[in-house]
Structures are given as structure tokens and as C-alpha cells.
Amino acid sequence: MYPMHVKRNDLNAKSRMKGDFHVRFRERLRVKFPWSTRQRWTEYVKKGGHLILTCRTGQKDRDAKLWEAPLAAPIHQLAGINSLYYDHLPHNLYGKIDFEGKEFAWNNWGDVLTPAAGTDVWAVYTDQFYKGAASVIHHKLGKGTVTYIGTDTDDGKLEKEVVRRVYTEAGVSTEDLPYGVVKEWRDGFYIALNYTSDIQEIVIPDEAEVLIGSARLEPAGVVVWKEKSDNKHK
């Protein structure tokens, strides 16, 4: 959804071997949400994980019914939410959000958040009757964090920048990729695939050993390589 690659060189050896980025992204898990899920997420965060949630998470139970409680009640304490409600806008009207001094447009779904004490507000709505209310919040819990993105945008630009900030604050660098290009690391090998109809150029370190393909990816092309920095993590 958001073409961004996490550079594994910024992860510790234990994380690299287990394939755990220490950042988990859960998008709209809004149906069949058992309380045990919240317990597992809470334990993950307290031990140092970074959890990213998006709008409508936890709104319904395992039977797809609303809780007999405030909206999305199971995640309130986890995400640092005091209360929330939501809004939709007409298809021809876009609202505005401010995140780090940049303006983003939305009209699909917007959770209007009242953060709990100690929760940081990262983004706010800049118009509508809830102008100034929180759109994105960030909550520290134990050794980790929970970031709640309350707004769904058409282009995903807001969500991408929030995810980028989470990785940055976790000390993990990222790399922008063209839409339709996938790059990942698995068992000591880097793999990049081109799902677009155009030729794509990707960055491969000069000292890397290319095993299959090249940095010039033809449509439906693939390249596989190893980097010297990975040898110590075998």
C-alpha cells in the first residue's frame, strides 16, 4: 500500500535472523476482534515493539457486532485514546489535515480522536466542525509505542509519512521505491521485483554480489543479491 523499504542494516543481528522488524502494521482489523488480540498486542509493545493501527481497528467483536461499550473500546487503553467518533465527507468534498506542517487531503473516513493524558498528537484536522482535533496520535507503552492513524486517505500519502516517522524514531532507516516495485530481505538474500509495465532502476550497493538479474528491472523482472554486511549475521 505504501511503497517503502526498510533497510535491514539498521536492525540488530537478533532481529535480522528472526525477520522481525520490531514494527507491526495492523490495518483496519475491525471485525472478529477478540480481547486476546489486544492482550497480545499490549505484551508486544511493552517488550519494545512499535505497533501501528489505523482507523476502525477494534470496532467490532468476533461476530462483527459493535461492542456494548464506547466505539472501539478494546483498543482505547492500548492506543492512548480517551474517546473517539468518526466522520465521512461527500465524495466531492475534501477535508484537510496538518502533519508536521504539511497539508494532506481526506474524505473517506476520519476518526476524530480525544487522546488520553500522556498521548502525543501528531496530526490534526484543520477544518470542519472538529477543527483542531487529533487525527493521528502516538502513545508510549512500556518499552515500545503505539501509533494510531485515524484517517483514511485516497492517495495514502499521510499514512506513508506517519509510518516513515515511526520507523525513523525507532532508529530504522527507510528507502522510497517506485509504486509497484517490491524489495525485501529473506534468509540473507535481498530480492527486488518489478510488478509495473515499465523498466525500473533500483539501488544496489557496489560491493553487493548480484546472483540473479541486475539493478535494471524489466517489467515482471527480478533481481537477487547478497551484501557483505549480511555475512556476520549468518
Automatic annotation (TrEMBL):
CDD domains: A4_beta-galactosidase_middle_domain
Pfam family, one: Glyco_hydro_42M
All copies of domain Beta-galactosidase trimerisation, residue ranges: 38-172
A GO molecular function held by the record: beta-galactosidase activity
GO process terms (BP): galactose metabolic process
Database matches in InterPro entries: Beta_galactosidase_C (IPR013739), Beta_galactosidase_Trimer (IPR013738), Class_I_gatase-like (IPR029062), Glyco_hydro_42 (IPR003476), Glyco_hydro_b (IPR013780)
Protein name as catalogued: Beta-galactosidase
Organism: Bacteroides ovatus
